[in-house]
Write a structure and sequence with these properties.
Layout lengths: L2 H20 L8 E5 L2 E4 H17 L4 E4 L3 E3 L4 E9 L1 H5 L6 E8 L2 E9 L4 E6 L4 E3 L2 E2 L12 E4 L9 H11 L5 E3 L4 H9 L5 E4 L4 H13 L3 E3 L7 H4 L2 E4 L1 H11 L3
Parallel strand pairs: 3-5, 11-12, 11-13
Antiparallel strand pairs: 1-2, 3-4, 5-6, 6-7, 7-8, 8-9, 9-10, 13-15, 14-15
Helix pairs in contact: 1-2, 5-6
The structure holds D-MYO-inositol-1-phosphate and calcium ion (2 copies).
C-alpha cells in the first residue's frame, strides 16, 4: 500500500473507532444544528480532530479541507475529509455512515478511503492502482440495461431550491429501473457503485468532502463519474452522476433535461 494511503487508512480506522465507541452512549451525544436539516455532533468533531492529528503527525506541511473545521492551508497536497458522512443516520441510530478521506496532489485525486465502521468495510483506491474493498479488487456493475439496475440517490433535504427539478428526474428514473435506494451517506453510495452493489447513483448539491474519495474509487473500479452535464466539474458544483459507461449515458439523458 502506498504510504500516503496507509496514513489515510489509519486515520479512517481511528475515526471509525471513535464513532463506534460512542454508540454505547445511547443517544447521550451533543448535537448542534448548522442549518435547516443539517446537524453536527460532538462525535463528528472529535473524529475530525483525530483524523487531522494523524495526518499532521505524518505530513505537517500538507493542506487540509475538512467539513467541520474548514481549510487548513499548506502545500500542494490537499486532504479532503468528511469525518462522518451520514450524520443524520448516526444521530438516529440508523447504522449506515462512513468516514471519507481523499488526497489530491496539485488538483488531481491520488488516494481515497471510505470506511464503514459498522460493517468494517474499507474501500480504498490509489490512482492507477485499482480499487479495493478490504483485500479484494472491486469493479463497477456490468449491467447494460437501466431496466435491470438498482440505483442509489440522495434527496435535496437541506435546501428545497432544487426539489422540483430533482423530483422531475426521480419521476422519470423510477419507472425505468428495478429500484431506487436512499441510504443517507453519499460517500457509501459512491463506494457501493464502485463495488457493483448499486448500478448507479445521482445526487445534487453535495460538498467536495462527500464526493472526492468516492470519485477516485469509482474511477479506479472502472466507472464514470461526472456532473449533470457529463463534465468534470462535480467537485465544484456538487452534482454527480455515477455508473458504468453504458448506464451513465442513459442516466444522463434522463436527469439532465429534468
Ligand atoms: C450528507 C450525506 C447525505 C447526503 C447529504 C450529505 P453529512 O452528509 O452524505 O447522504 O444526501 O447531501 O450532506 O452531512 O451526513 O456528512
Ligand atoms: Ca457528508
Ligand atoms: Ca459529515
Amino acid at each position: 500500500m502506498h504510504p500516503t494511503l496507509n496514513i489515510a487508512v489509519t486515520a479512517a480506522r481511528r475515526a471509525g473507532d471513535i464513532i463506534t465507541r460512542s454508540l454505547d452512549r445511547n443517544g447521550r451525544i451533543a448535537v448542534q444544528q448548522k442549518h435547516m436539516n443539517d446537524f453536527v455532533t460532538e462525535i463528528d468533531q472529535l473524529a475530525e480532530k483525530d483524523i487531522i492529528a494523524t495526518i499532521r503527525r505524518a505530513y505537517p506541511t500538507h493542506s487540509i479541507l475538512a467539513e467541520e473545521s474548514g481549510r487548513h492551508r499548506g502545500d500542494d497536497h490537499q486532504w479532503i475529509i468528511d469525518p462522518l458522512d451520514g450524520t443524520t443516520n448516526f444521530i438516529h441510530g440508523f447504522p449506515h455512515f462512513a468516514i471519507s478521506i481523499a488526497v489530491q496532489y496539485r488538483g488531481q485525486l491520488e488516494h481515497a478511503v471510505i470506511y464503514d465502521p459498522i460493517r468494517q468495510e474499507l474501500f480504498t483506491a490509489t490512482r492507477g492502482a485499482g480499487a479495493k474493498l478490504n483485500d479484494y479488487r472491486i469493479r463497477v456493475g456490468q449491467r447494460k440495461q437501466l431496466s435491470e439496475c438498482l440505483m442509489g440517490t440522495g434527496f435535496p433535504y437541506r435546501s428545497h431550491e432544487h426539489l422540483a427539478s430533482y423530483l422531475r428526474g426521480f419521476a422519470m428514473m423510477m419507472p425505468q429501473c428495478t429500484g431506487i435506494r436512499r441510504a443517507g451517506s453519499a460517500a457509501l453510495d459512491l463506494a457501493y457503485v464502485a463495488a457493483g452493489r448499486l448500478d448507479g447513483f445521482w445526487e445534487m448539491d453535495l460538498h467536495p468532502w462527500d464526493i472526492a474519495a468516492g470519485a477516485l474509487i469509482i474511477k479506479e473500479a472502472g466507472g464514470i463519474i461526472t456532473d449533470l452535464h457529463g463534465g468534470e466539474n462535480y467537485l465544484k458544483d456538487g452534482n454527480v452522476i455515477a455508473a458504468n459507461a453504458k448506464i451513465h449515458k442513459e442516466m444522463l439523458t434522463i436527469i439532465k433535461p429534468a
